[in-house]
Amino acid sequence: MDSLIQAAAVALAHGDVLAALKHVALRDDPPALALRGIAMAQLGDFERAKALLRSAAQAFSQKDELARARCIVAEAEIALVSRDLSWPSQALDAAWATLATHGDVVNAAYARNLSARRLLLIGRLDQAERLLAEFDPAPLPSASRAAYELTLAGIAIRRLKTKPASAAFARAAQAARQAAIPALTAEVEGAAGVLHTPAARAIAGGEERFVLLEEAEALLQSDVLVVDACRNAVHGRQASIPLATRPILFALARILGEAWPGDVSRETLLARAFRARRIDESHRARLRVEMGRLRAQLHSLAQVNATKRGFALAPHHAEKVIVLAPLVDEHNAAVLALLADGEAWSSSALAIALGASPRTVQRALEQLAAAGKAQSFGGGRARRWTVSSVPGFPTALLLPVPLPGG
Fold it and tell me: What residues form DSSP beta bridges with 235?
């Protein structure tokens, strides 16, 4: 490695992009192309960065498979940051194998962390945890260690485990300070802010209050029956009942939970859950059927009793019923939560992250755009979506997680 290449690499490691480019901007040899690609990525020009990295990978000789593997890892990170989830993850796995075989422990660990970050983004938390458990983060430089700790914190946040998340954020902050990269320090501080801002509303007895993630975690671990409108489930000490695929049943459960300990009239249930305007016997018959299905779903946690004017929820063991609702009720909240990370998403990437059909996601984006909550730029396959200003919109409780038991 010549002195200019080494100086550029050191400058990039310390976040000084312009200094790095001064050393290699006019060079077209493979190492310089790779460093220029990384620099352009740090400046936000992802398309140029990918082109430079691919050129570098092609320019390296067949004997330089280690250098080509490092280029692939860099391109994989650009794909992740630009939310190109269709980028072939098998290429990153192959690069990791090459790096591990050649003893490049630091870059092999970094490649594994990138794979874990992608899995975290699409809600595959168990797989992400297994990947992180496979390697020792000790050899990682400070900047990479901060990224590793942020991934651990992200997994803990999705699982609603605030103490491990807080510890991981603290380690990430320490690593960022050691790296002395201001942008990284700001990123860690911004990510850790999720622990100190309201995440949801707790509704009980006709009253509501804001709760932090820590308070939401405590509610879910208490003896309270929680109707979770953030993840469309009902939680109790004995079980968690996912109802994300049963929207009518969950709507009924939420309405009954908000009214507890009182009951809800049949007319109110039909108007809110079924959006019925003119109620007739067919609506009443359907309500009876859906209430029977709700009883079957919730039998281990509560009864759904018929009253003179409607229905009421009666927990078996819980002393209280609380509805945990998003700060802002939004039909397309899951899409908005992903967009709220500040990155530009394609509709196909959103579909992959949510496990939904592309048409469903496209329809949600069009509705959000019509409401002024999302905006797009570009056209065709290059079209990208970002969130418009939605002050205080929470994401942690709305992001994809594995369903209980699955």
Answer: 226, 240
Instruction: Evaluate whether 387 touches 365 at the Cβ level (below 8 Å).
Output: no
DSSP bridge pairs for 324:
202, 228
Q: Number of C-alpha atoms within 13 angstroms, CB side, residue 395?
A: 17
Crossing angle for the helix pair 30-42 and 46-59, nearest 10 degrees?
A: 160
- Residues facing residue 209 across a β-bridge: 202
What confidence score (pLDDT) does residue 392 get? Answer: 47
CB of 59 closer than 8 Å to CB of 27 = no
End-to-end Cα separation, the chain, in angstroms: 49
Cβ distance 212 to 202 under 8 Å?
no
**Cβ contacts of 204 within 8 Å, gap of 6 or more:** 260, 320, 321, 322, 323
Q: What is the dihedral of CA 321, 324, 330, 332, to 10 degrees?
A: -110
The pTM of the full predicted model, rounded to 2 decimals, is 0.84
Coil, helix or strand at residue 259: helix
Mean pLDDT by 10 residues, the chain (406 residues): 87 88 92 93 90 93 91 93 88 94 91 93 92 87 92 93 96 94 90 91 91 93 93 90 93 95 93 86 92 95 93 92 89 85 87 90 92 87 77 55 51
Say how far residue 157 (Cα) sits from the centre of its chain: 9
Cα-Cα-Cα-Cα dihedral sign, residues 297, 303, 306, 308 = negative
CA distance 355 to 154: 19
Contacts of 250 (CB under 8 A, 6+ apart): 229, 232, 233, 234, 243, 244
Do 5 and 31 meet the contact criterion of CB atoms below 8 Å apart? yes
The tally of CA atoms less than 13 A away on the side-chain side of residue 253 is: 35
Classify residue 103 as exposed, middle or buried by CB count within 10 Å of its CB (0-12, 13-18, 19+): exposed
Burial pattern 63-87, b for ≥16 Cβ within 10 A else e, equals: ebebbbbbbbbbbbbbbbebbbbeb
d(CA 320, CA 228): 14
Q: For residue 204, give both structure tokens.
A: 């009980």
Q: How many residues does the chain have?
A: 406
Distance CA 338, CA 341 (A): 6
Q: Which residues in 358-383 are b (16+ Cβ under 10 Å) and which e?
A: eeebbebbeebeeeebbebeeeeeee
The structure tokens 């993850």 sit at: 89
